[in-house]
Specification:
260 residues, alpha/beta, Rossmann fold, four-stranded antiparallel beta sheet, 11 helices, 10 strands
Length: 260
């Protein structure tokens, strides 16, 4: 579904992404892991159009999408969430969801004056859709809460809910578990798996919690120093000597082996 070919993103002399090539297959929940500074979030930002690549190409199916702006990718069904949730704090949770679909009639002054009935009907449809999403995510009880007043884990669920308000084809989730307690993380994991199995969503997930990755992701891609280091099941990459070395460093890896 997404194919990345020899992608580079440089910041001056620093090569954040350094010749990465990978594929994300349709219908999978693909994990993307690696030590801090491996280039994972930068790779996400290039694929999702927030940063232009220094070189390399990105494809969605057979269509090249290299360098397209985020709003152009949005209309193609490519969505990205962030490590820190970007909610509109003064609006309710339901309103945060309702504002996601693009090209709403109420956005135009002419319609606001002369097409009020049409706007009202559209808002009712969006409200019904938002309520369906909130029920799916088991957070209907916070629908009327201000988004600034809910927990970090609930904000991550709301971000996931935003992707359900449009025709998302692939969703890039950046550290969905950051600052989230284990109970809510399990709820988020359940929602991702249900969206994948019941609605055909494709996901790519950056996460440091290997228990979470092992539960929901297959395959898992490992990055280190801007390159793809390994790919396989969660169990396979955990046992990979090069992956262990990338996380622990050669000295600590050898010390632990000697102790064992």
């Amino acid at each position: 579904m997404i194919r990345v070919e020899n992608l580079h993103r440089h910041f001056g002399g620093f090569h954040a992404v350094d010749g990465a090539s990978l594929s994300i297959r349709q219908g999978t929940v693909t994990g993307l892991i690696g030590p801090n500074g491996a280039g994972k979030s930068t790779l996400f930002n290039v694929i999702a159009g927030r940063l232009p690549p220094t070189s390399g190409r990105v494809f969605m199916g057979e269509e090249e999408i290299t360098g397209l702006a985020p709003h152009e990718l949005f209309h193609k069904g490519v969505l990205r969430t962030f490590q820190i949730a970007h909610e509109f704090g003064s609006m309710t949770v339901r309103e945060n969801l309702m504002m996601v679909p693009a090209r709403q009639h109420g956005e135009k002054l002419w319609n606001a004056i002369f097409s009020r009935a049409q706007i009202r009907e559209e808002e009712e449809r969006l409200r019904a859709k938002a309520d369906e999403v909130l029920e799916f995510l088991t957070i209907s009880h916070i629908a009327d809460h201000k988004a600034s007043q809910i927990s970090g884990g609930q904000k991550k669920l709301v971000e996931l809910g935003r992707t359900m308000m449009v025709d998302a084809k692939i969703v890039f989730l950046d550290e969905v578990g950051a600052g989230v307690n284990r109970t809510l993380l399990n709820t988020i994991g359940d929602a991702i798996l249900r969206l994948n199995r019941e609605r055909g969503y494709t996901f790519c997930v950056i996460e440091h919690d290997m228990e979470f990755i092992g539960r929901i992701c297959d395959p898992v891609i490992v990055m280190a120093e801007g390159k793809v280091l390994a790919e396989g099941s969660a169990a396979e990459v955990r046992a990979n000597e090069r992956v262990i070395e990338a996380y622990l460093g050669r000295g600590l890896k050898n010390k632990l082996k000697a102790q064992a």
